[in-house]
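Minutes, project check-in
Item: structure for the 433-residue chain
Input as provided by the requester:
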Amino acid sequence: MRRSILHEGAGNLIYEIREIVGVARTIRDLGQEITWENIGDPIQKGETIAPWIRDILMELLEDPLSYGYCDTAGVISTREYLASEINRRTHTAPITPDDLLFFNGLGDAVARVYGGLRREARVLGPSPAYSTHSSAEGAHSGYNHVTYPLDPRNGWMPDPVDIRKRVKYNDAIAGILLLSPDNPTGAVYSLELLQEIVQIAREYDLFIIADEIYVHIVYEGYPHLHMSQWIEDVPGIAMRGISKEYPWPGARCGWLEIFNKHKDAEFAAYAESLLAAKRLEVCSTTLPQMSIPRIFGDPRYIDHLARRSSTFCQRADEAMQAFEGCPGVVVNKPGGAFYFTVMFEDGVLNTHQTLPIENPAVRTRIEELVKNVTPDKRFVYYLMGATGIVVVPLTGFQCSHPGFRMTLLETDPTKRAWIFKTIRQSIEAYLGS
């Protein structure tokens, strides 16, 4: 074109979790039955929404207000309810309804949060990195996402000393991102660790972003912490949603909780810019927002959350047992969310390893796909071709460690056992080939 129209960060818009779907559909069309273990959609994997939650949603369909626009920032009564709940559990960072802002899913919120930053302002995030964050942060700046490593030998925990060094020697860093429970690792951070990160942000005048989409899916024995309980006096943004909790991913309903907005004039102006940008699209979807006070406030919701957390914890135990003693890999039991990450030991993968694929057309296509890909993606493609199981390569999460992420969402216990067993057998066969 006469003038370049491509944004400098367009090349960073990579979402391996969804991109692998196109490959899997090609393999399916060639005759291989597919088992989707790539995406965190509980509904797709067979979970049904609780009848009492469905009844509330059906009742809301009878409310004429659910069909109209709402306030730009979100349904006022819902923001009032959430602000009250937040303030009930915190003594350090009170919040008002004006500090909450609704979006059409957290993907929308993430894009707005990074897109609203000055291009030179960078947000330091974890590696492995959840693709939505890493892509949006990289795209806004035009460079690769800046990261701090999570340690697979220490339960995928970050090292505050390392974070401090990266902040100290890179004055472009304006914020720190964390996910707890983490995606893809399922790691859950302690209060002490969070307080250390807060101290770093305070010392270097940064803000913190906490993706809390899985904050209510925490296993027994792990801390259940909201940003409001540890942010203290540092500016922060918590990201929440209902997609994983109800679960209702198709609702596309997420929101930001903005803390200590008035502690820093520039942060306050930035927060106001997010609302101003939201005004351009009027508002987010009304009905899902209206459901939140009724569902969150229902006495059955606490039991609902506890039951689901227990379910995923039991499945994590099943996965740990299935991979116990598996040669060539490192596994950690997650403390929350519903993912399971398998990391390959250094040096165990090479470009000659294969798995037997019975379908000649599938085998030919896989052999074409594995040319010039990362070693873990090579394994993922062979696993797909040989077994039909679709997982996500760990290097697709902007991670230097080879491996893959699968889900704990399969509701059929027989099929779930088959998935775990088949993946382990495939690892052993691949590494021994």
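Outcome recorded: Residues 300-323 form the longest helix (24 residues).
No further action items on this chain.
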